[in-house]
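Protocol step 4 of 6: record predicted structures for both targets in the notebook before any analysis. Target 1:
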Amino acid sequence: MNEIINKRVEFRDLGLIDYQNAWDYQESLFADTVAIKIRNRNLPASEQSATPNFLLFLEHPHVYTLGKSGKQENLLLNESGLEEKNAAFYKINRGGDITYHGPGQLVGYPILDLDNFFTDIHKYLRLLEEAVILTLGEYGIEAGRIAGLTGVWLDSITQENPRKICALGVKSSRWVTMHGFAFNINPDLNYFGNIIPCGIDDKAVTSMQKELGREIPMEEVKEKMKKHLSALFEMELI
């Protein structure tokens, strides 16, 4: 546990960025934070450094990513199919199965030292979901959770037509997080037809644009998400 608690979180909007470049950038921030934690262990409290926290917002060009627990057969495209769709594919080190990222989807990667906030991964995931649920509520979209499934869902109560609007997949080591959430604002939903999203084949995927019948300003959604994440985590975004 850190002797110095730092609830300041540096916000960085990376815009549209290649998946590998964003992954490398995350890995570098993550590694730097873990290195500080390891160094602090061997120092008296008076000489320890505060660990930094980051919140990255971005969009990716078309890409499919497969988590550690995922099955490659949930990707329904071969190499030439990926090429035809102008999409990349990566096996990565987060939890979860397969998902799609693309333009019009707000991707959030918090690189937080949870020792600065709370050491509870379950709570961490639920608060990320809650920020999305509260943001959707501001647009009159009622969303929630489905027991046993991560992410944010519409029609989560009656489940007559449950559809996912935000996927989550995170990694944590020494209580430092990376990866995060993918929130469908205005993406091309046809790309989800090339996978079995998160390995779930009996539930649909949706977006704010599809639900509201209009394109939603991405910058507006980002501001609402930042507001809710700040409040829920009691963080100071800088």
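Target 2:
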Amino acid sequence: MSMNERSHHSKENPKFIDFVGNLRSGQIALGLFEALPEVMFWLKDRQGAIVFANRAYAELLRRLPEDLIGETDATLFAPTMAKTFQEDDESVISTGKSMQNKLEIITRQGGGIEWRMTSKIPLFDEDNQIIGTAGISRRLEHGEGPPLPTPQRAISDLVDYIHDHLDDPISIKELARKVHMSASSLERRFRKYFGTTPKRYLVHARMAAACDRLLNTTLSIGQIAISLGYQEHASFTRAFISVMHMSPREYREYYSSST
């Protein structure tokens, strides 16, 4: 209950604190979060071991929720991706501050890409000591029904344009003109809805396409780089590592062998 007691809402709502304090332990996590098929939810202890994971989290890894108890990012994900997740957890624990709406591309077990918006918060005990973290990650995948929640649909056409023209040179000025905004207004809109800039979102989109081509085509890494508008192999590799936390070659080898 400490997590709820430290939220802004609960501090201003004594009735909420009393109500939650009388709940049987586990009802919210085991009930509500199990009913969210595309929203991953988990609890970890201070050492990063999972103490609860909902079905959506388990399905990403093709496991059962009960099989994930005691597992860590290091045992569930590719090493470089696990390292990034662990660093985020460690930052939340060391600072006591939450991580809000981080745009991530996650590879499912055996391949396949999911766009996700991830948030993490510290968990406190009754002595105000941090004992772990909680995380929630909602899917924001392009192309599966309405890709964006209602407030974001104002720029959904622009998002579609980006994904439909990944092989073409796209400038931020061009994107801004398409939605009749200044470049600075477009950047504010993207930061509000995606937690990132239009330029960075474009890089994410291209790297997601690169992941698909690495696993589902026989194109060389150089050919994939050129197909996505990168004339220099090194530039493509740097961009890929910045998003996926491993090189294109490592990605292809790791997930091809997993499949």
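Step 5 preliminary note on target 2. The beta strands are 39-45, 50-53, 99-107, 113-124, 130-139. The radius of gyration is 20 Å.
Proceed to step 6 after PI sign-off.
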